[in-house]
Amino acid sequence: MTKKTFKKSFTQQEPIPEAAIARAVEVLRGGRLHRYNTLEGETSEAALLEAEFAAYLGVPYALACASGGYALQVALRAAGLASGDKVLANAFTLSPVPGAIHNAGGRPILVETDEDYTIDIGDLSQKAASSRAKYLLLSHMRGHIADMEAVLEVCQAHELVLIEDCAHTLGARWNGRMSGTFGKVACFSSQTYKHLNSGEGGFLASADPELMARAVVHSGSYMLYGRHLAAPDEEVFLKVRLETANMSGRMDNLRAAILREQLRHLDDNCRRWNLLYGALEAELRQVPGLRMPVRPQHEDYVGSSLQFSLPGFGETEIRSFIELCAARGVEVKWFGAAEPHGFTSRYDSWHFIEDPAELPKTRALLATLCDLRIPLTFDEADCRLIGEIIGECTVETGEADEIPAAAG
To answer: Which ranges in 159-265 belong to alpha helices (H)?
Structure first.
């Protein structure tokens, strides 16, 4: 019998909205791409985007940046990170997160991961006490939000400054509260595979006026900070402007114009993603030997990607499974490979980290952790087909290698 295959691309995004394209063309025709290149009385696209982004999150301040990774570096520096300061961070994340800590002069201290792909609260508490770190850079990796009340308890007990990496949780909530509003500052991404698409881009958001004033100057405002709408008053800038280094990484007006229209449709797109996620999840929960994470009732996630584990499989079986899926058009990524591949890498491949701790729980988790994108170019029937193919490849791999089925 001929096996079903999937024909669509896992990297194809939806077109940029026509209204955004039209506005971008206006910006191009005007030639004023730099965010501070404005006419008398004119407000730049970047400033308007920042105001709209801050209003969406319900915070007073936002800053548009050249990338999410740059936003992380600026957030750390603006929060007061000094050279050599220790920063706690998830071991399960993407390399730009510890990279931002390293590039900002900090020392990453990696924290274990629990079975549902979020930061391990027990290990976080222990390392907060033993390391005497001043900061926690919490990555909501692949859209999985930790128990934020528990995280805040640890931060308060150990006087940690919480910085949220919300690259995968724009539009998500914990217990009704927007992701990115729990810490002193939060960072977001508008790289192509995130919830807003400008190719590259990022944001900082905060309710702390001095931190945001430093961030604006760090981003390369020179003395033009008065042209920001979602920024503190001038007296705050007067306190910090001469002691804050310029690390130019501004967002330009072209990307801002592309993003403003997308932001208006974000909540609708989040609902669409969750319909697709639900269709795929329902299929995968029926597969013997495949484990889906438990999503807490307080988590209102955005299902733009999906992760699952194959706890009965070894490295050979995982590689065989991925090859079987690929042969049928389903692109599954694996976070457990010893060598980095594409966007995925295991924490022990980040050799810029000094004296990394042993992380047996995270290593065991990553060994069987699989990942796939869910672009909005898919529909629910596509997701059901993907789930069917993954299920068949899981069973086929298990039968070929006589692997006992694990609990679903």
So the answer is: 209-218, 234-240, 253-264
- Cα dihedral 167→171→177→182 (10° resolution): 20
List all residues 6 or more positions away from 111 whose beta carbon is below 8 Å from its beta carbon. 88, 89, 90, 91, 119, 120, 123, 124, 127
What CA–CA distance (Å, rounded) separates 139 from 118? 9
* Mean pLDDT for the stretch of residues 141-167: 98
User: Which of 120, 128, 126, 130 lies closest to 91 in space, CA to CA?
Assistant: 120
- Which residues have C-beta within 8 Å of that of residue 170, sequence separation ≥ 6? 179, 180, 188, 194, 195, 196, 266, 302
Q: Do residues 219 and 65 lie in contact, with contact meaning Cβ atoms separated by under 8 Å?
A: yes
For CA atoms 351, 354, 357, 361, the dihedral sign is negative
In the sheet with 135-139, reading across from the earlier edge strand, the strands are 61-65, 202-206, 185-189, 161-165, 135-139, 86-90, 107-111
In the chain, the amino acid numbered 135 is: Y
**221: how many CB neighbours lie within 10 A of its CB?**
24
Residues near 97 by beta carbon (within 8 Å), at least 6 away in sequence: 72, 89, 90, 137, 139, 165
Chain-centre distance for alpha carbon 44: 27
Q: Supply the pLDDT for residue 407.
A: 41
Find all residues with CB under 8 Å of 106, minimum gap 6, and list them.
Answer: 76, 81, 83, 84, 85, 86, 87, 135
Provide the H-helix boundaries in 31-118.
Answer: 45-57, 68-78, 96-103
Encode pLDDT of 328-374 as tens digits: 999 999 999 988 888 888 999 999 998 778 899 999 999 999 999 99
Helix 380-401 and helix 315-327, axial crossing angle in degrees, nearest 10: 140
Contact predicate 344/337, CB 8 Å: yes
Query: Could you count the other beta carbons within 10 Å of the beta carbon of residue 38?
Result: 17
- Residue ranges and CATH numbers for the domains of the chain are 18-264 (3.40.640.10), 266-401 (3.90.1150.10)
Token representation of residue 45: 């696209």
Q: What is the pLDDT of residue 408?
A: 42
Cα separation, 82 vs 165, in Å, equals 19
